[in-house]
Amino acid sequence: MTITITAFERSPDGGRGLARDTRVRWALEEVGQPYEVRLVSFKAMKEPAYLALQPFGQIPTFEEDGLVLFETGAIILHIAQRHRGLLPDAPEPRARAMAWMFAALNTIEPPIVEREAAQITERGKPWHAERLPMLDERIRTRLRQLSAWLGDRPWLDGAFSAGDLMMVSVLLRLKSSGLLDDVPNLAAYLARGEDRPAYRRAYAAQRAVNVP
């Protein structure tokens, strides 16, 4: 049965590859699995039919042969476990790749998303000018720690894995912020991820929906 994922009918990111369906598209491209995309409006995402698939009314969802999943971490882990190409075969490297997936989602992404939310909802508030540097420093701390681990490695732990896919997807959210300027090895790491043919295909597919 063909895999079907959902994506924004009109993405808030304007086709820059930041919407979370791009992560799932990338994973499917890496493992060579065909998929279909069902576009949904913001209105449809809050209706009962969609909430039966995704209880929080978000994208993406993943459907295959009666299985319905939500949350990109869970979806990509499922894809990686079922298809070769995103997780090592050996148990210990495989476990470490999974650990990096969780690190991307639980340690690196939260302060980035908090900064984005502040830029959208708090701009113009009297405390915004003081709060933003604090948020930036939280991110810089995590970036310095990640940079120290990466060093001159091409990827986080040996060959490219689902951990790298998730980490690059998270770091992409900082691309226009200037916060990567002080960690050139992470900027280069991000560029390597973007240069992967599977990522380029996923990016192009997401952009085609949003940019005429």
Care to describe what's here?
The structure is a single chain. By secondary structure, the chain is α+β, with helices and mostly antiparallel strands. The chain has two domains: 3-86 and 198-210, Glutaredoxin (3-Layer(aba) Sandwich); 91-196, Glutathione S-transferase Yfyf (Class Pi), Chain A, domain 2, CATH 1.20.1050. The chain contains nine helices and four strands; from the N terminus they run βαβααββαααααα. It has helices spanning 21-31, 42-45, 48-51, 72-82, 91-121, 128-150, 162-171, 184-194, 197-210; strands spanning 3-8, 35-40, 61-64, 67-70. α1 links the parallel β1 (3-8) and β2 (35-40). α5 (91-121) runs antiparallel to α6 (128-150), α5 (91-121) runs parallel beside α7 (162-171) and α7 packs across α8. The longest helix has 31 residues, at 91-121.
Largest sheet: 4 strands, mixed
Low-confidence stretches: none
Structural category = alpha+beta
Q: How many domain modules?
A: 2
- Tell me the Rg in angstroms: 17 Å
Give the strand order, joined by hyphens, for the main sheet.
2-1-3-4
- Topology as a string of helices (H) and strands (E): EHEHHEEHHHHHH
Summarize the structure.
With 212 residues, the protein is an alpha+beta fold.
